[in-house]
Amino acid sequence: MDKTVVITGASGGIGSEIARVFAENGWNVAIMYMNSADEAKKLEKELISYGSRTYCRNCDVRNIKEVEEFFTLAEENLGVIDALVNNAGVALQKLFCDVTAEEADRIFDINVKGSFNCTKAVLPSMIRRKSGKIVNISSMWGICGASCEVHYSASKAAVIGFTKALAKEVGPSSINVNCVAPGLIDTKMNANLNDEDIKMLTDEIPLMKIGKPSDVAHAVYFLCSEQADYITGQVISVDGGMII
């Protein structure tokens, strides 16, 4: 196998695990990160030890010029991009009336515009080849909404709408576009939760446990594999059954 995937936000808890799963399955991995250079370089070394060819570079998904340059260099180093995982995202827990305009813009610019920019950069090549997989990372709160996370929930709902609409548009070009909606996953993003919060949340999860980054990563990999060639426009919930 000589396939290449671009993973945005690859230095984070879920992103790094997605990268590991692809590398373990023989894919080349382009690691896109924004701030966590040390974590990204450490991940790159780990993936190389698996035998994966890698490309690792800082990129702000909000900046279309930076994004276009990243994809150009990734292709020069690794070959054509077979799959894109739009994983970069930020969260915010705050009362709706207390969220500033700057905070709201940041959430939508990274979570939504970032996915638009990266998809726009990779799509022309996929359309020409009539082949490609795109997986967008949403959230269970994008499905049902969360109190004190209105802007985050709205941005992740937008990701779902983006997925469904784009799947219809590029389906004739044999490109699959799907979405994974994680639930409560054990990552730094949820480090602010105390033991009481976690117990309250796990009591609402039918499987009675918090998910692992690998649970999300394997779902993403499946959607990028040949086994998912006839699946598009879908939202796969990885939430232990919390949202049914």
Task: Kindly describe this structure.
The chain has a seven-stranded parallel β-sheet, with helices on both faces. It is of the alpha/beta class and 244 residues long. The chain is built from eight helices and seven strands. It has one domain (4-238): NAD(P)-binding Rossmann-like Domain (Rossmann fold, 3-Layer(aba) Sandwich). Strand 1, helix 1 (13-24) and strand 2 (28-33) form a beta-alpha-beta unit.
Oligomerization state of this entry?
A: single chain
> What is the molecular shape?
globular
User: CATH superfamily name?
Assistant: NAD(P)-binding Rossmann-like Domain
**Unreliable runs:** none
Biggest sheet character: 7 strands, parallel
In total, the number of domains comes to 1
CATH topology (fold) name = Rossmann fold
Would you tell me the structural class of the helices and strands? alpha/beta
Mean pLDDT reading: 96
Task: From the structure above, extract its key features.
244 residues; alpha/beta; Rossmann fold; 8 helices; 47% helix
